[in-house]
């Protein structure tokens, strides 16, 4: 059976000298990447780790991140990518929760961890990517000193656990979604079919790799196909991103709505717009405003495909087909081996066109939440993953996400979806970003409140916003309160953090 490591092994055999990763001035071939991951795996075994042990990765984007991931899987361990924006105490919770034994990090993040390191009882060793050996820590270069490059584990199967992805945890502590080799391989293979990825493709990777959307689409997908990963340290490195587009001739650009919003609304150099090799833009992680799609496709003369997924589904569930009918306003069709349905509160399937909760079934669905059987039982019912997203299907099977189930408002007992209001706001030419939440109201229960970022150099009043909304929305859906802000709070993947607005 295919495992995640087998995907790398096969590409190393087919394209041994081909560049797998380009990072700044470094180039790592497929053969080198495969050998480095095995050397690191033997180094981890020498530290006393064994099959099933957890290896945490808490770092910015760099080649060592990818090497550590494949090294953990190569010896039969579990990789645990950790959100690089977390505090030391938040990292400690994850380390303690799943008993991480080795943590790979860098000197910058070591400062975050220092106050809590001694309290992490399961942790045996910290490996520092850019540091020398110290009495308490090991340099990553030392981990690679083993000359052994043979496979360190021979009894891996597709059912073995590969990765724990800790969800954002909008309420309470984050939950560790357990993904098997089979979950990740099936999702990568199905994504390969949709995007028709070929070895000559070059993927631009600038989103943080701790996010499952990034790792599957920007690392596993190109590795399966034998493509090249053009790696950027951070989404903030816009100059490096521009240079990668122009000089590295990237062909697949994977981004999030906030990034596309910037590209759509800023004047870009003509060389960036017309002299690029991008054949496909891919968007995920958050809803993509409709006007942005048109602006990007007009500017770059390439297709922008919006998809949908969640960590618990490895993560890709659906995508608008690159070749075929793309329906703006939808997140496309389910992947080949993925089934979807819309259900009511009692999990009964609803007919086409009716709004309910999106449920997902397939080989990409997680094994459950680590050490949380009750949460798992509430989330996976009869093999169907309840996503928490309100959606509907059309006659052709295209999925439209209406909103998050938890974000729905009840205005005088009537359902109101913030995303519908946001879609109307984004139609106004002077609005760059917006977010709508519910606030308590004595007579109506809840009413919508809109937070708006106005385009630079433009003017917009509350009166203008209300007049615009009245032309498109029923009275009970109109924002009761409007607040203008210079920017909106975002997380590491540039998703607007509504909980910080409440």
TrEMBL record:
The chain crosses the membrane at residues 203-232. GO terms for cellular component: membrane. Keywords: Ligase, Membrane, Transmembrane, Transmembrane helix. Pfam families: AMP-binding, AMP-binding_C. Gene3D superfamilies: 3.30.300.30, N-terminal domain of ligase-like. Coiled coil: none annotated. It is found in: Membrane. Residues 8-370 form the AMP-dependent synthetase/ligase domain. Pathway: Lipid metabolism; fatty acid beta-oxidation. Residues 420-495 form the AMP-binding enzyme C-terminal domain. One of its GO terms (molecular function) is long-chain fatty acid-CoA ligase activity. Its EC number is 6.2.1.3. InterPro entries: AMP-bd_C (IPR025110), AMP-bd_C_sf (IPR045851), AMP-binding_CS (IPR020845), AMP-dep_synth/lig_dom (IPR000873), ANL_N_sf (IPR042099), ATP-dep_AMP-bd_enzyme (IPR050237). It is a peripheral membrane protein. PANTHER family: LONG-CHAIN-FATTY-ACID--COA LIGASE (PTHR43767:SF8). This is Long-chain-fatty-acid--CoA ligase.
